[in-house]
Amino acid sequence: MINFENIRTMRSRISAEYELRHDIRKLASRILELSIAELQAENGSIFLIENRTITFQVLAYQSSFAKVVEYKIKTAMNTGLSGWAYQNRQGALSSDTSNDERWVKFGDEGDEIRSAIAIPFLYFDEIIAVMTLHHTSARYFNELHLAIASEVAKDFAPVMEAVRLSSK
User: Which one, out of 10, 13, 121, 165, has a CA that is 20 to 30 A from the CA of 149?
Assistant: First the structure.
């Protein structure tokens, strides 16, 4: 069950972590980690984007982080659900990835993901990140999950941009 109180206090929880105020990569990883926990996703990814180029990516399996293979990122951002969210500048819901042409299967983990959402982080008119959350159960994610994740993106986009600019 989604804990709405935790979601409402996510920004203050992250703001209290001093090291996140100066490191965009740590901030993005923490946003992903808390989003996975609060929306009860099983894993996900976040791509930081600057000047239409991915500058940092992280894939989370529960709370462990690993780099994503570059060809997978390019494919996902060109033809996948993340790319659809990026190109259409709005959140995307795939309640059953096996019936969604926007979902890219890579063979190693793509077949077990059955429900996904992808959310762009917009700062003014620029997309600065795209976060995707996954679950192995079809129809796990619904419009409520998408709405909450979209609010998280709307709330954190200015924070992420401020941290990115201050760390230059």
Answer: 165
Half-sphere exposure of 141 (CA within 13 A, CB side): 32
d(C-alpha 75, C-alpha 134), whole Å: 17
CB 96, CB 142: distance < 8 Å = no
pLDDT digits (tens, 9 = 90+) for 6-54: 777 887 777 777 777 888 988 999 999 999 988 999 999 999 999 888 8
User: Regarding the domain with residue range 4-166, which homologous superfamily does it belong to in the CATH classification?
Assistant: GAF domain (3.30.450.40)
Which residues are paired to 30 by β-bridges?
none
Distances (CA, A) of 2 to 36, 41, 151, 156: 11, 11, 14, 19
Reported pTM? 0.87
Ordered by start, the domain boundaries in the chain are 4-166
Q: Dihedral through CA 112, CA 102, CA 92, CA 49, nearest 10?
A: 100
Q: In whole angstroms, what is the distance from residue 55 CA to residue 111 CA? A: 27
- Report d(CA 154, CA 35) in Å as an integer: 13
For residue 101, give every residue at least 6 positions away whose Cβ sits within 8 Å of its Cβ, in sequence order, or none. none
